[in-house]
Amino acid sequence: MVTPARVVIALCLVAPFVAMLWVGSYAKTDPVFIGIPFFYWYQMLWVLLSTVLTMIAYKLWQRDQRARRDASKGGAAQ
């Protein structure tokens, strides 16, 4: 079943892949950040962003599973 939470989970998990596979968007040296060319700091930024997005997806998944479990218990008791 497709729910809004599952759509957000999918977007959180797919975004890093799209960002990293679209090399043409970051295959350049400018702008430089503290002496590091864009190509490198962009990828390092996505390491951090991927961690945050994966944590968000995990928490949403836990909440979704808990809600499904509670809904099935409530339906079975009636």
Automatic annotation (TrEMBL):
Pfam families documented for this protein: DUF3311
GO biological-process terms attached to the record: proteolysis
Molecular function GO labels: peptidase activity
Transmembrane segments: 7-27, 39-61
Entry superkingdom: Bacteria
Protein name per the record: Membrane protein implicated in regulation of membrane protease activity
Keyword terms: Hydrolase, Membrane, Protease, Transmembrane, Transmembrane helix
InterPro entries: DUF3311
Lineage: Bacteria, Bacillati, Actinomycetota, Actinomycetes, Kitasatosporales
